[in-house]
Each structure stands twice: as structure tokens, then as C-alpha cells.
Specification:
Length: 269
Amino acid sequence: MSIDAHLLENFDLTTRSTATNDGIVILEIGPQKQHYHLHKALLTHHSEYFNKALNGPWKESKEKAVTLDDVDTIAVDIFVHWLYTQQIPDNRDTLQMTRRFGSDPGDDDGPITGYTKALVFGDRFLVPAFRQAVHNCLVDTLLREDGPRCPTFFTATKYALENLPSNHSILELFMDIHCRYWSVSGHGEYYGGEWGEESGITVLLTRDLPSILLIRIIARYSWRAVDGDPDWWNLDLKDCDYHEHLDDQERKDCEAKSEKKLRNACQTR
């Protein structure tokens, strides 16, 4: 995957000059061994990991190539889009990216899984600006102004459980949305004017979901129902509660935007 020169138009003249003069490096990603030809200066500027790998006394520095066999291409596709545009691709573009090598038929929400894998990539390879951007994109995609995204996204939740700290706010969001909005009946067959809960359970049993995922959802539901704030069930989830903030001022600004968003949502209902 080569990067056309016109993508550098997002950067000022000095940055474009440095990126062009510092040359191209190759990332070889996943079992497909997909090659990404990227400007070294941009990659090393944003990532401490790649800065050390490509500027130190390592094989990668000499060969101007880094091989990452255990990384999914969707994570790198999203990262490369951000690297050259400073924007996370929207839901439609991300869905197209997930289909590039054939989508997983068992994935119940490809874009959310893609964003989750990109979040883990940003954390693992020390790209803090990208990590924050994709983190907040995940929150905004799930908590839209016109209402929350309908679960399930078990594939993304499973990946998050396996790759993020247990107290990560994205995991908290996944659990809260499933507790609030997941309907088992929605997985079943429509018969007699309603969705069937029993058939929904039968379908879910074929998913071979990990026990830790189901236990975490049950535990979260129980805590919210027994020990949590009873008003929680009637209030909209606030995106600011799950966003990543760099400092107190950013949190304060985010809270103001979140309150405005909730007011607008209430007025349109």
C-alpha cells in the first residue's frame, strides 16, 4: 500500500519537506504480509516505538522495514489514514477497510472491531495522539446524538477483554451499553408479532462466546441493578464519562459539549 504525494498536503511546508527527504520505510503486516510504504519522518514523529526501531542500531533501521506478524491489517489501515489526514476514518470507510481481505462472518460489528483493534495498536506502539483519537471516535460512534448504537459487538468486546486493562473506559462502555440496550430476543426469530427469546438464546449459544465476557456483563448488570444509582437506567449515557482527556481543561470542555449534546437529543425526542 503506497502513499500518494498529495496526501502530504495536510502538512505544512517544513513537515512535507522533512517527510519527503527522510525517505520511505516499509511495514509488513499480518499473515498476509501486507506492505505499507510510509514516510519515515511521519511514522517516527508520532510513534516512540517506531522512532526507536527505525533510528537505533537495529536490523529494522538498516533495512528500513518493520515486520509485525501479529497485527491486523485493519488496525494499520485506520492508523495510516489518521497518519496522513489526522482524522479517523468514518464508519462507512472503516467498513470497507474490514472487507479488503474478506470480512469475518462471525464479526457482529466490523467497524467497532476495527476501531478497537486500532486502539490497541495505538497503545502498543506508543502513538498517544492516535490512541486518543481512535478512543474518542469509538465513544462517539457508540453514543451517537440520535441514540446509542445497537448492540451487540461481542467480537470487539472479546478483543478488548484480551488486550486492554480490565478497568479501561472502553471496556466499561462496552459493558454498560450491553447492560442497557442488549436484547437477547433480537437474535431470535420473528414469530407471532414478537421476537423469540428462546430462539435468540439458541443463536447466541452457537457464537461460542468466552465465559469471561458473559460473566463480566452479568456482573456489570448486577452491580448497576443492585448497588448502582437507580437513575442510571433512565438517563442517557454521557460520552464524556468514557472519553480520554489530556487534562482537566479538556475534560471541562468535553463535559460542556456532552451536556449540550444531551439537551439537543432531548429536544428532538
